[in-house]
Design a protein that fits this description.
Aspartate Aminotransferase, domain 2, alpha/beta, 17 strands, 7-stranded mixed beta sheet, 398 residues, 13 helices, 4-stranded mixed beta sheet, Aspartate Aminotransferase, domain 1
Amino acid sequence: MISALMPNYNRANIAFTHGQGAWLFGDDGRQYLDFGAGIATSSLGHGHKHLATAIAEQAAKVIHVSNLYRVPQAERLAARYVAASFADSVFFCNSGAEANEGLVKAIRKAQSDAGHPERTRIICFEGAFHGRTLAMISATGNAKYLAGFGKPVEGFDHVPFNNLNAVRAAITAETAGILVEPVQGEGGVRPADPDFLRGLRAACDEFGLFLGFDEVQTGMGRSGRLFAHEWAGVEPDVLSSAKGIGGGFPMAAVLAKEQVAKALVPGSHGTTYGGGPLACAAGNAVLDVILADGFMDQVNDTAAYLRAGLERLVAEHSGIFTEVRGLGLLLGLKCTVPNGDAQAAALAEGLLTVAAGDNVLRLAPPLIIGRAECDAALELLGNTASKRALAQAETVAK
């Protein structure tokens, strides 16, 4: 008999009763160090007083009014994003897939408004992940995600990641823009080369295309900058953000320059829940912390410390882990054993991680961690590797 919850998730048999900082406490009586952060979402960790207070206070006033009316909390949050980023205007929604849908619609509509209705195709990259809607699994292009859902949605062309020659060869008279992740998280924690991102900007400028960055996972301080593209010194025309934007509260955004943003006129796009008072109260609270003096310096210091420890771990346990990848506090360990086995073994040790493509174990801890949490995670990963190596040796002996 099917469960009351649809069987589309392969959940670990554990539930959490509460959390504090980077720690979660399970219904099994154990505590777990959270280096998954709800898939890079709980940016301020668990039980963060400022975030929890902002949500509770707003919930006691008004939760939802719809976008038929002004939402002062959204107006304030949008203005803060504009002041802190490349963007001129912001659209709020609910999830990363929804933000990417809005991004693609905005690119197509902006091209049409500019006199190029034939420009509807988006160049995407092998190894990408842009969400689970019908259009976004087509933008992702992964056969595993497309299987069983009929013909892919038209309008997406795929080329190898970090290959500028392939991008330029794929541009046609119907190309509207390019969509790229500064770090492919789901695809194996693979960073884009900064020169590649700069080359994408130059190609878009040359051919009249719009450059879109999917920063659903890399944005909101995870890379050590507000948005990861800042490390390459380039600006997109439009960007999607989600996950850490609300500290765990469901929220997303499309940030855009005026030429793209002005295409979304009344009736062209919308959302019932997006940009509501409660979500934006959470978003403003997260931004209070992330934009505070010294916070990004702390993230970068912690990220460098963690990466150095992971490099030592790889050197000590090269039979299990072979490479460290990533940027900031979005890091990955390339595994020799199946990454699902490594993830399960880490869970048994009390460390929460996330599997990614290319047989990578993904680490995306809350941004508020310090060196003590890094040391604890490195010890647990060392235990995991040692036990996996022992299990391998026993298997070979048999």
